[in-house]
TrEMBL record:
Keywords: Disulfide bond, Electron transport, Redox-active center, Transport
PROSITE patterns: THIOREDOXIN_1, THIOREDOXIN_2
BP GO terms, sorted: cell redox homeostasis; response to stress
Protein name as catalogued: Thioredoxin
Native source species: Mycoplana azooxidifex
Short name of any one Pfam family annotated for the protein: Thioredoxin
Length: 317
């Protein structure tokens, strides 16, 4: 059973999990020796910063620092690794680095010592030190979340509803008020025909989040779907247009239906055809409807880009 509150069933349970660059605690913290130092520290630091904690069993301040630095490294979620070296058993590396008192922590980045501190620092200062050598956590997570959102949107565009919902849902577990992920999850529900679930997702958004353009666009999409359901049989509308190409009311309704069916090119073309024939129809209704389509599709959607070019040629030719 998934503990993902956004999990649903599209032919199977969705239980996505996003790692955000985290690693198991066993991989983040380890002991090293003189023989393994090059691999554990020098080579590893070419991939991510490695903190080396030089300590000894008899050192009181070392015992104070150990639980603090281990906690902060674990909370850093894989931004750094911690390697501990007992200088009683392995004194040569500390001697080569000129370490004369412990605890001493040296940060290796790109295979070389980059920074360090001595003594049992409080938790806040250890956290600041990690942010200094590895970058702030918020910046890292924001970039990773943005990358995951883009991947989820790509999957949804490829009609991989389950895969997209897995990623959107995992982001929402970490950040329940992420507007883009909420909107994306609602779009997955719409694509799966689960309109009531989509409405519930949008209704769950806090007031400030609900004002986000991504949420507003999905809400508009649901309104368009509800409207299109009342516009009649598309085949009958096609027949009406075949008999009278200037039946702009039928063409406008057909455009709305094609839009909610996902045939964006056809929807845009019908509206553009009305504009070419009669810009005054219902107070420029075709252009206003097309702009609402753009709002839902988004500015980067290929259908938006293509239709906007055609619209410009009509308006400015």
């Amino acid at each position: 059973m998934s503990d993902n509150p956004y999990a649903t069933s599209f032919g199977g349970q969705m239980s996505g999990a996003v790692n955000y660059g985290t690693e198991a605690a066993a991989d983040l913290i380890k002991d090293t020796t003189t023989a393994t130092f090059a691999q554990d520290v020098i080579e590893a630091s070419r991939q991510q910063p490695v903190l080396v904690d030089f300590w000894a069993p008899w050192c009181g301040p070392c015992k104070q620092l150990t639980p603090i630095i281990e906690k902060v490294v674990k909370e850093a979620g894989g931004r750094v690794k911690l390697v501990k070296m007992n200088i009683d058993d392995h004194p040569s590396i500390a001697g080569q680095l000129g370490i004369q008192s412990i605890p001493a922590v040296i940060a290796f980045v790109g295979g070389r010592p980059a920074d360090g501190f001595m003594g049992a620092l409080p938790e806040s200062q250890v956290r600041d030190f990690i942010d200094k050598v590895a970058g702030p956590a918020d910046a890292d997570h924001k970039a990773e979340i943005e990358a995951i959102l883009e991947e989820a949107k790509t999957l949804l565009g490829q009609h991989d509803i389950g895969g997209a919902a897995d990623l959107f849902g995992a982001i929402l577990q970490a950040d329940p008020e992420n507007a883009a992920a909420l909107a994306g999850m609602a779009q997955c529900m719409i694509a799966a025909g689960q309109l009531d679930n989509a409405r519930q997702i949008l209704a769950s958004a806090p007031e400030e989040v609900a004002k986000d353009p991504a949420i507003a666009a999905v809400q508009k999409q649901l309104e368009q779907i509800d409207e299109a359901r009342k516009l009649g049989d598309p085949q009958a509308l096609e027949q009406a247009l075949a008999a009278n190409p200037d039946d702009h009311a039928s063409r406008l309704n057909l455009a709305k239906i094609r839009n909610v069916e996902g045939n964006r090119e056809a929807a845009a073309d019908h509206l553009l055809a009305i504009m070419k024939r009669d810009r005054t129809f219902e107070d420029d209704a075709a252009r206003r409807e097309l702009l609402q389509f753009f709002e839902v599709w988004g500015p980067k959607d290929p259908a938006t880009i293509a239709a906007r070019r055609k619209l410009s040629s009509i308006l400015f030719s």
